[in-house]
Design a protein that fits this description.
The structure is a single chain. By secondary structure, this protein is an alpha/beta fold. It has 12 helices and 8 strands. The protein has an 8-stranded parallel β-sheet. The chain has a single domain, classed as TIM Barrel, CATH 3.20.20. Helix 1 runs parallel beside helix 10 and helix 4 packs parallel to helix 6. Keywords: Signal.
């Protein structure tokens, strides 16, 4: 996902503003620093990717009954297991739940069973402000040739202000969290991906506050979080930092810049998980960033896994009209048959994972 870092000053201001923002804290008990660190210490170093099967262009195609693809999920999570990945971040989708509530939860359980078989914990994402705002149930569009994430969907996107939509979103979050609140196969609930993206900025604050409130009301065993990603969004950042049990964040910069982010975020005292990194043409690569994340004991989840319908081998802002393979992939690790794009990267990942 796209990131816009105005880094050092904004992060400092964010943490200075946390106490001033305390009156905005969501109901329920945010995990203490001690509880968060005890939880983190109970897990092996987290490494993995943001995962969608190569046969799905977006979250709806992944989760709708007609296109849910357990065979591909099983095969591709096998690739993850083979290189020692133990965590995957996976986006859910509210319309898939609305269309078929029982079936949706059954498919979530089926996904978790497959992931667990491969020794993989899952971090589920509820809402998202990235890419296309107008989702429709049913057959999803074909990818646009050479265009990065041409079919990815915001959630709820344009539906946010529809009559009754808030009640539906609350029911969705509450139902899914309640069904899986004790499930040890789930590592963490990521409530909102990149709030404020797509030029929404502080307009996303209302839903951000609501989703934390709904999640606290359910009180799942797993921690909840919403990842920091744009340091210019002071109000959103302060709320996210204050209300997250574990600090998650995105950083697509090179290792020196990324390390500065980590050093500043550590002032919060809680464990860190980077839930998006690795954009090769931006200087964020496995070779330079992943070893640094392990050294700093920061969880490492890169964007992109198997090249497929999301077209994330292409860069955010550099489409290739004829769809030819870029000389340097932007994201992704494997081709569909399991062949690595760069064997040396896979060997490094395996080494860092003790595989």
């Amino acid at each position: 996902m796209r990131t816009y870092f105005v880094k050092i000053l904004a992060v400092c201001l964010m943490f200075l503003s946390v106490n001033a923002s305390a009156q905005k804290a969501a109901p329920g008990k945010v995990w203490s620093v001690a509880k968060a660190n005890t939880w983190y210490a109970g897990h092996k170093w987290m490494s993995g990717a943001d995962f969608i099967p190569s046969t799905a262009i977006n979250q709806l195609e992944m989760w709708q009954a007609d296109t849910f693809d357990p065979a591909t999920i099983d095969r591709e999570l096998g690739y993850a297991q083979s290189i020692g990945f133990n965590t995957m971040r996976v986006f859910l989708y509210s319309l898939a739940w609305k269309q078929d509530k029982a079936g949706f939860k059954k498919r979530v359980d089926q996904y978790l069973t497959i992931a667990n078989k491969h020794g993989i914990k899952t971090m589920f994402v509820f809402f998202d402000d990235c890419w296309n705002a107008d989702a429709k149930i049913g057959k999803q569009p074909a990818p646009k040739v050479g265009v990065h994430n041409s079919g990815w969907l915001q959630d709820p996107g344009n539906r946010l202000n529809n009559a009754g939509e808030t009640a539906m979103l609350q029911a969705y979050v509450t139902d899914v969290l309640t069904a899986f609140k004790h499930d040890k196969r789930i590592l963490l609930w990521d409530l909102y991906n990149e709030p404020g993206n797509s030029n929404k900025k502080d307009a996303s604050m209302g839903l951000l506050v609501k989703v934390f409130t709904w999640a606290r009301a359910v009180n799942p065993d797993q921690p909840i979080s919403a990842g920091l990603w744009d340091w210019s969004f002071e109000k959103l950042n302060a709320y996210q930092a204050l209300n997250s049990d574990i600090v998650t964040y995105h950083d697509y910069t090179d290792e020196a810049s990324h390390l500065k982010t980590i050093q500043l975020l550590k002032s919060h005292g809680k464990p860190l998980i980077c839930t998006e990194y690795m954009a090769r043409t931006r200087g964020s690569k496995f070779a330079n960033v992943m070893p640094m994340l392990k050294k700093e004991n920061v969880g490492a989840l890169n964007w992109g896994f198997v090249m497929g319908k999301t077209n994330t081998i292409f860069a955010w802002d550099n489409p290739i009209p004829d769809g030819s393979e870029p000389k340097e992939w932007f994201h992704d690790i494997f081709r569909k048959d399991g062949t690595p794009y760069k064997p040396e990267e896979v060997e490094l990942i395996k080494k860092l994972n003790g595989k």
